[in-house]
């Protein structure tokens, strides 16, 4: 059961079930308000019996025979005293210009609201219903129907007289009638009939379901949804009937229209009225409750439900219990439901009360969300529909949401919503900051304060920074990093930090923050001192960003101790600002750091620090021997004697061997390899690099009495030295490890060399033959000679203008052409001729390939 909420809570509470409102979490679909003003006065002394609704006004009938015309707000515009007894029904045409009224004393009156013409008749029985033709004002015939014991049709003929026709009789009292377009639907004691006014035929009879209910106590409710859909409610049964056109082939003697029931279902309570709402139904129910204590049924509040019809059942969308006045005294027949065709308004009529139900708009939706304290959803709904809401303001809803969050101690969410709700309203921002200060939650709102183009007064930011400085150094540091320095008075904050450092001088967080503040204040030297003292990673970024190289000339050792790699890279990248000599001077007392700097300098450029290469020999020997040999190989400025002396003093054999070989003493170098390293493979590699026959002889001589060395030589010298020279010098009887394998390898290598030579020979012969054939084809190929060719000697056309004359032309393989008489009589070799141009360019001359004569 959903909650019901009107435009004003106090008024709505008068006729809605407030106990259900408190428990319901489902938003109601409709809102309600009591029709007051003139209606209140009427119902105070009289009782409503019927009402009809037009888009522009209302017509209300009472039990004392009066009819009132009301505006939409319930104010009386006209009053008619038509009878002394109950008005049973009022009918209006579509234009609202004519009204039809019937009463319990048998009177029927049809007249124009703006004209004097009309129909007045009294019958000897009560007339329960009347219905005007929808186009009554425009029609010349002025048709309408009345219902008592029979259904009568009245129409004006061409003599301006009223003609009466009986449409139906004999089935009891006509209790309801509705006229839509050319279709008239009415209900009597047995069921509902539909009459086609265009064909003058009755097309259906929908039987009544529950015949045990008295028709006068539980009357039938009829409602046209459109020109072809009739909704029938009777007792606790609802049927939806659709009028359709019959297929011409099936007509025979049947009407050309028929009715199909597309939905039929039963309800829990008795139906008092029906109205369409899009594809749903609005239903008014009469409710009786059974009391166990008193063992009797009592009349409860009527219910207004919105239901979704299905073919054989329905789905309840919403259900509202209405506390209308004197509902305990009302019966089912006392309630009526009328609706407006234009705007979806639904009027619940009871003898002492009239309630208007209308669809809830976005403002009502927001009201409900606020009442349920669903502030976030209310704010979202207001933002989405801000153009359509009339009674609410997005910012006010947002402020209510923030207040709600603060009351629930959800300070972080409240602070986060400030950013969205407060927007650019600086006054609201400052009020909220002071409120958060009062409740001790400045930290919560600090990260959401505006800090871009829109800013608060500096005092606000300083207040928050001082708060953090008292309680949270890390949070204070975070704000200093995130907030631009222009938001607050930098000097005031620096002074505050210094005051705290007096009590805690080694606090790294405060020192780092102070360095950042000095940076904002462009006092980079002070910031640099703190960063170096803390060995902070941002020191290099600070130096680069603000070009502080002049300030670090005397702090190079500190920088190197902090991070050698970054310091050296920075110094080398900015050599134009801090020279190599200056760096070497500063690092002179720290040779291990000097070595790192000079080593990276050498890696970048072998020549830039050449004057320090002599010093680097000792540094490499002391701190980085693995890189000493590569340094000696790559450096062309290193004094070899000094390097040899250092290497010999430290007994660096590999480095000494390299230096000896570089100085030309290869025999001594080979001797060190053999004697001190005892590495035959390295000795062989050294001999291969030098490619000196005497070194090979010394190597063989040294190895001849050492079987392992002989094995190594046999395995590796086959391609450089004739193995026979080694084999002949091996003493008889000497045991040589793996001799057989070594000899096999020698033979294999020899065979491989032979095969390579033969293969190369075959390739050479094949290539020579191919090139010779190609040259032969080229030299035997014809050469085109025409008027476009010229003699390379006299530069005239190679062919005479008169082809009848005799001429002689010589064409060389290089494609140069000459008149024969333009060539020298003989070449360098008797009996041969050569191209003068190719000979002059020192190219191999081409010989004449063609001589043309005529």
TrEMBL record:
Ranges occupied by CHCR repeats: 568-712
Main location (coarse class): cytoplasm
Keywords: Autophagy, Cytoplasm, Cytoplasmic vesicle, Endosome, Golgi apparatus, Lysosome, Membrane, Metal-binding, Protein transport, Transport, Zinc, Zinc-finger
InterPro entries, sorted: Beta-prop_Vps41, Clathrin_H-chain/VPS_repeat, TPR-like_helical_dom_sf, Vps41, Vps41/Vps8, WD40/YVTN_repeat-like_dom_sf, WD40_repeat_dom_sf, Znf_RING
Compartments where found: Cytoplasm, Cytosol; Early endosome membrane; Endosome membrane; Late endosome membrane
Recorded GO MF terms: zinc ion binding
Highest rank taxon of the organism: Eukaryota
Biased composition range(s): Basic and acidic residues: 1-12
UniProt domain RING-type: residue ranges: 791-839
SMART domains: CLH (SM00299)
Signal sequence, renumbered to the chain: none
Similarity annotation: Belongs to the VPS41 family.
UniProt name for this protein: Vacuolar protein sorting-associated protein 41 homolog
């Amino acid at each position: 059961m959903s909650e019901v909420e009107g435009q004003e809570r106090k008024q709505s509470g008068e006729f809605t079930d407030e106990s259900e409102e408190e428990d319901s979490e489902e938003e109601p679909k409709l809102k309600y308000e009591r029709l007051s003003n003139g209606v209140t006065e009427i119902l105070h002394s009289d009782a409503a019996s019927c009402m009809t609704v037009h888009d522009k006004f209302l017509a209300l009938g009472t039990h004392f025979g009066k009819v009132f015309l009301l505006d939409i707000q319930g104010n009386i515009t006209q009053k008619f005293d038509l009878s002394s007894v109950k008005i049973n029904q009022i009918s209006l045409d579509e234009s609202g210009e004519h009204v039809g009224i019937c009463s319990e004393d048998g009177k029927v009156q049809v007249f124009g609201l703006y004209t004097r013409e009309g129909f007045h008749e009294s019958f000897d029985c009560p007339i329960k219903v009347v219905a005007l033709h929808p186009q009554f004002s425009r029609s010349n015939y002025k048709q309408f129907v009345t219902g008592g014991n029979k259904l009568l049709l009245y129409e004006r003929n061409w003599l301006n007289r009223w003609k009466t026709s009986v449409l139906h009789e004999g089935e009891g009292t006509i209790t309801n009638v509705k006229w839509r377009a050319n279709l008239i639907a009415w209900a009597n004691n047995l069921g509902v009939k539909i009459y086609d006014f265009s064909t003058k035929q009755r097309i259906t009879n929908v039987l009544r379901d529950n015949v045990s209910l008295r028709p006068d106590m539980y009357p039938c409710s009829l409602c046209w949804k459109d020109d072809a859909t009739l909704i029938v409610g009777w007792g606790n049964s609802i049927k939806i009937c659709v009028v359709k056109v019959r297929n011409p082939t099936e007509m025979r003697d049947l009407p050309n229209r028929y009715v199909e029931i597309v939905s039929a279902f039963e309800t829990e309570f008795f139906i008092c009225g029906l109205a369409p709402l899009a594809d749903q139904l609005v239903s008014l129910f009469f409710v009786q409750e059974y009391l166990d204590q008193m063992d009797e049924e009592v009349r409860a509040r009527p219910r207004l439900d919105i239901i979704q019809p299905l073919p054989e059942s329905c789905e309840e969308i919403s259900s509202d219990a209405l506390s209308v006045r004197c509902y305990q005294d009302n019966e089912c027949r006392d309630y009526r439901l009328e609706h407006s065709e234009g705007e979806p308004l639904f009027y619940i009529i009871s003898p002492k009360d009239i309630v208007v139900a209308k669809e809830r708009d976005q403002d009502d939706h927001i009201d409900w969300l606020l009442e349920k304290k669903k502030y976030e959803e209310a704010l979202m709904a207001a933002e989405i529909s801000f153009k359509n809401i009339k009674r609410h303001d997005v910012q006010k809803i947002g402020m209510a949401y923030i207040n709600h969050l603060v009351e629930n101690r959800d300070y972080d969410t409240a602070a986060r919503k400030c950013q969205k709700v407060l927007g650019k309203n600086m006054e609201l921002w400052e009020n909220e900051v002071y409120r958060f200060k009062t409740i001790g939650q400045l930290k919560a709102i600090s990260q959401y304060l505006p800090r871009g183009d829109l800013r608060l007064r500096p005092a606000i930011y300083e207040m928050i920074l001082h708060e953090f400085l008292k309680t949270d150094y890390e949070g204070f540091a975070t704000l200093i990093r995130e907030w631009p320095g222009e938001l607050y008075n930098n000097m005031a904050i620096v002074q505050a930090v210094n005051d705290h450092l007096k009590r805690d001088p080694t606090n790294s967080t405060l020192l780092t923050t102070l360095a950042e503040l000095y940076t904002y204040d462009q006092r980079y030297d002070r910031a640099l001192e703190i960063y170096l003292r803390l060995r902070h990673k941002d020191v290099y970024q600070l130096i680069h960003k603000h070009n502080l190289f002049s300030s670090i000339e005397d702090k190079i050792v500190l920088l190197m101790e902090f991070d050698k790699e970054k310091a050296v890279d920075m110094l080398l990248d900015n050599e134009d600002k801090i020279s190599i000599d200056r760096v070497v001077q500063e690092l002179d007392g720290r040779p291990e750091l000097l070595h790192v700097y000079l080593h990276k300098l050498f890696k970048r450029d072998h020549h830039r620090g050449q004057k320090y290469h002599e010093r680097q020999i000792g540094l490499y020997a002391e701190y980085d021997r693995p890189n000493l040999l590569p340094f000696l190989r790559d450096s062309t400025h290193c004094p070899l004697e000094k390097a040899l002396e250092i290497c010999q003093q430290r007994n660096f054999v590999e480095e000494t061997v390299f230096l000896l070989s570089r100085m030309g003493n290869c025999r001594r170098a080979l001797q060190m390899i053999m004697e001190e390293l005892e590495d035959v493979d390295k000795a062989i590699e050294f001999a291969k690099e030098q490619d000196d026959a005497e070194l090979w002889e010394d190597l063989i001589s040294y190895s001849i009495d050492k079987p392992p060395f002989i094995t190594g030589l046999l395995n590796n010298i086959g391609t450089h030295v004739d193995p026979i020279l080694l084999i002949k010098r091996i003493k008889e009887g000497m045991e040589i490890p793996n001799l057989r394998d070594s000899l096999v390898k020698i033979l294999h290598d020899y065979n491989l060399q032979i095969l390579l030579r033969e293969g190369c020979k075959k390739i050479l012969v094949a290539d020579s033959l191919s090139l010779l054939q190609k040259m032969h084809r080229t030299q035997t190929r014809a050469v085109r000679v025409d008027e476009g060719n010229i003699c390379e000697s006299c530069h005239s056309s190679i062919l005479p203008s008169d082809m009848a004359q005799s001429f002689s032309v010589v064409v060389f393989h290089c494609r140069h052409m000459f008149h024969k008489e333009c060539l020298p009589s003989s070449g360098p070799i008797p009996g041969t001729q050569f191209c003068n141009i190719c000979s002059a360019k020192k190219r191999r001359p081409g010989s004449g390939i063609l001589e043309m004569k005529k």
